[in-house]
Amino acid sequence: MMQHCKNIDTLDTIKNDINNTESFFKNTLSLRKNNKPLIGWFCTYTPEELIIAGSFTPKRIFGSKKIIKAESYFPINFCPYLKSSWESLLSDSDNLEAIIFTNSCDGMRRLYDTANIYLKDTPSYILDVPRLKSESSINFFKSNLDDMQRFIENLSGKKIKRKKLEETVKLANNKRRLLKKFSEIFFKMSDL
Description:
Blueprint: H1 2-20, H2 22-33, E1 38-41, H3 48-53, E2 57-60, H4 80-92, E3 96-103, H5 106-118, E4 124-128, H6 135-156, H7 162-190
Parallel strand pairs: 1-2, 1-3, 3-4
C-alpha cells in the first residue's frame, strides 16, 4: 500500500512537471499550426531540439500497421519495424522537408541508402552515433551534431541561434526526464 501511495505522489509530481512544460508542447504544436515544415525522424538518438531550433516541426516516424509496398524494397528477413517505417515514408515523404536517420543499426543504414535512391526529392541526413563512451567518441558525436545543425540550417536558409537552441535543449531535456519518470512508474506498477 505504501508503494502505491508513493507512486500516486510521483504521478502528481509528473502532472505538475507536465503543466510546467506545457509550453514545450504548445510551442511544437504552434510550429505546425504556423505551417512550419516537418522533418521526419526515427530514433530516440535524434536531437529534436536541433530540429525545433531550426524552425521545423519534428515528426516521429513510427511505421505503418500494414506493410504492402515496402516488401518489394527489402529482403524477407529485413527488420519489420524498418519495413513499416519505409511504408510510412512512401506515403508521407511529400509532406516532409527532410528525413533524419541515425546510424544506430545496419538496417537503419540500409533504410537511409534506400531513401537516397527512391526518395531523391526529400533531402536526408544520417547522424552517426558512437558505440563507445570515451572522449574521442564524444568529440566524434559533437562533430556529427555540428554537421546535422549545418544540414538543418541549409534547409531553412538561416542560422540556428544559440539562445533558441539552449531553450529547446532545456525543454527537450525536461521532456526526456518526464518520459523517464513515467517509464519508471509504469514498470514499478507492473510489478504490483
